[in-house]
Amino acid sequence: MLNNKPLTTTDTRELSPELLRNEIDQRVVKIRPMSTPIDQITRLAQSRPVNNMQVEYYTVDTKPTSAAVKSASISAEPVNGFYVADLTLNKTGVFQPTDTAIFPAVTIQNGGRKVNLIVYVLSVDMDTIKVIAINNSVDGIGTFPQASELSKKSIIRMGRAATELDVQTPQFEALPQKESNLCQIFKTQIEQSTIQRMADKEVNWTFNDQEEVAITDMRLSMEKSFLFGHRTRFMAPDKNEEIMLTGGIWWQAGREIQIGADTFQEAEMIDLCRTAFTESCGSSKKILIAGSGLIRMIHNLEFTKVVTATQVVTRWGIDFTEYVTKFGTLYIIMSELFDQCGHSNDGMVIDPEFITKYVHTPLHIDRLDLRTSGVRNTEAVVVTEASCIVLRHPGAHLRIVCK
């Protein structure tokens, strides 16, 4: 309650702090949104307040669905009507007892036709699994092709198979991994002489030309940190105070694809899209942010019905070129910051559903009267934000590195 007093900016900050912050954010996102797509998207979409400068969060990737057989051995005698194969795999944690699996590269005869070998997992011991063949039999006994035909082949996990009396099944394990990032304190300061401010008849905080340029520079600098920053903390030698630097999302992406600048053709673009949208369990619409070199390579392609460059679409206040493929849709935008940071031929595919901005100190404005404090005859506006950006589900994001 204000007790019939006039509503002032100070009262608004005390009674409803988010009101002014939201207004500031709404103004900030209108300043050159095409130049800072990461900051723009996260400022308008996934943003969460935090109470600590060190952010801890969990990431989880989907459980692997395939492995390669390093070696195979088959039992000399059948057990309960089945020969048993011991398969040593190149990774652990893919299979559990009662899983079924398929060998895409191993064909057998079944009912007069060629089919892929299907197996049932009996037990698991670290990187070795015991399996039986369930669609290949000789004289009513489940058997396998030669062990050599199973070695060096891929085996793909399929659905689990339970009996009618089973009430339990081995536990599904896909444990999230704890990650952390640091919020970095970003600041910029704009000063104006008292005489000039009075002449312009300005009151409170507005976006004049000088302030807009300063905010633009601040956002561009933040964008570079959000992309390629190195997470660390250290003591400033001149102040003996701790400084935190945020880690960039370039290093957080869970997957990477390499392309060749001289060999990038439509087939490579299709492979890129295939990698971006398969085995990621992410969205069917993703964002490709790229340097000018990669954008040039994409523009030089002759697109067909497989990959089609269609209309320009606007999302989050940003104009994207929409590229439609059979795998999914890419929203493509060029970022000059990739060029400035030495990644002109590189790019990054980001799933907007799995990117989050953590904000310790929301973007806010402090006005300093330096004349009253005896520093100089100016008034200053200080813009501050402490934040970081993280990628949840790293496998949904892809680094594109030009060799």
Strand content: 35-45%
Q: Treating each run of at least 4 consecutive H or I residues as one helix, how many helices? A: 9
Shape-level CATH architecture of the largest domain: Alpha-Beta Complex
Number of strands: 23
Number of domains: 2
Tell me the distance between the termini.
64 Å
Regarding CATH, which class of the largest domain?
Alpha Beta
Please list the strands of the largest sheet in the order they lie side by side.
15-23-20-16-19-18-17
What can be said about the biggest beta sheet? 7 strands, mixed
Task: Report the mean per-residue pLDDT as an integer.
Answer: 80
Helix content: 10-25%
CATH topology of the largest domain: phage-related protein like fold
Poorly predicted regions are 4-22, 201-205
Secondary structure class reads: alpha+beta
Task: Give the overall form.
Answer: elongated
- Rg (C-alpha, Å): 29 Å
